[in-house]
Amino acid sequence: MDRDITFPPSDTEAASFYALQQSAAQAVPLTVLTGFLGAGKTTLLNRILNGGHGLRVAVLVNDFGSINIDAELVVGIESDGDVINLANGCVCCNIREDLVAAVTQVMARPEKPEFVLLEASGVADPSGIALAFMNEDMRDRIRLDSIMCVVDAEQIFAAPEMMELKLRQVAFADMLILNKVDLVTQKEIERIKAWLDDRFHRYRLVQTSRGDVPLEILLSVGRFDPSRLDGTSSRDQSSHPHDCDGHDCEHSAHGHRHDHLQAFKTWSYETDAPLSLEPLREAARKLPASVYRCKGVVHTAEEPGRRVILQVVGKRVDITVGDEWNGKEPLTRIIAIAARDGLDGVDLRATFDRCRCSSVS
Ligand SMILES: Nc1nc2c(ncn2[C@@H]2O[C@H](COP(=O)(O)OP(=O)(O)OP(=O)(O)O)[C@@H](O)[C@H]2O)c(=O)[nH]1
């Protein structure tokens, strides 16, 4: 095992980053943020966008549900049109062509981006994404720079039935961002590292809270190694291109097809009727354990002029008052992602309907 805890950036990473800031390279670097649902990808994305690098960045955000909440939560980009919204599927498989089309479109802009950031959906298998950029036509325009996997230190061992996917995400990344370390003890962090050591021969890891990682580690680091894709074809994404320790690998994907659409169910909710905050918090707390992720932008009776952001990751509920609606009609949009058989849409709708202001006595 050869673990490389990366902090601060190496000389090569720093040099590469500063060269990017000064050069107009032919192929534009693309960084992929991956990691399981709610791990902190959008938080990291916002950190990067607001990091003062001065680069012209194109942002692509993929949400698995039919409504792209993440695209609304991206801050620090000049206009709404600068965030390209890829919703209702997963860019690693069933909407991979949409991803290629979106990247082609941003590269054709008169002001070509100097950097492309892609936030994958929390259910994405990064090998499928990497494949999208490997054809010759794409390779001339886009250079896959790095695939970073955000790992939720608090939830890593939650939802054991999802461990195979989580491992695939970790395995394919060239950098692990162990996030949310503020929510766990030092002992827990050591346990996670020991667990990773048991499974991977070699990996790079940086631990952080709220994605607070130096930009030099994140941008234009040239870490992605295309040989990781050897044996992975566009028809079969089941190969296992990582450094896991063969004899005790828990990663049962060897030779099996990985199909997200079978494993998950998404649900969405929209209403223009204001919701009440406390019932909303209560409803979020009582979501079934099979709901891995719930999030939304909410129109509330208490804060009618501002967007209220609902975040649920596992059992952790976070409700915050965000910015103003900026001339848009207030509208509540909530999505939930659950295990395939773990979501009763009618029941969930009734739960959130009961939070409507008029229904609260
Ligand atoms: N305490 C704590 N909360 C965090 C940290 N990073 C992110 N969060 C919170 O975790 C929740 C999920 O974060 P996101 O950045 O939306 O996660 P994500 O990976 O983009 O989620 P999906 O796109 O739905 O998969 C939000 O409420 C964040 O504010 C952290 O380091 N510490």
UniProtKB/TrEMBL annotation:
InterPro entries found in the cross-reference section: CobW-likC_sf, CobW-like_C, CobW/HypB/UreG_nucleotide-bd, P-loop_NTPase, Zinc-reg_GTPase_activator
GO MF terms held by the record: hydrolase activity; nucleotide binding
Catalytic reactions on record: GTP + H2O = GDP + phosphate + H(+)
Gene3D superfamilies xref list: CobW-like, C-terminal domain, P-loop containing nucleotide triphosphate hydrolases
Pfam families: cobW, CobW_C
Residue ranges annotated for the CobW C-terminal domain, each copy included: 264-356
Annotated family: Belongs to the SIMIBI class G3E GTPase family. ZNG1 subfamily.
Function recorded in the entry: Zinc chaperone that directly transfers zinc cofactor to target proteins, thereby activating them. Zinc is transferred from the CXCC motif in the GTPase domain to the zinc binding site in target proteins in a process requiring GTP hydrolysis.
Name listed for the protein in its UniProt record: G3E family GTPase
The species this protein was found in: Rhizobium mongolense USDA 1844
Organism lineage: Bacteria, Pseudomonadati, Pseudomonadota, Alphaproteobacteria, Hyphomicrobiales
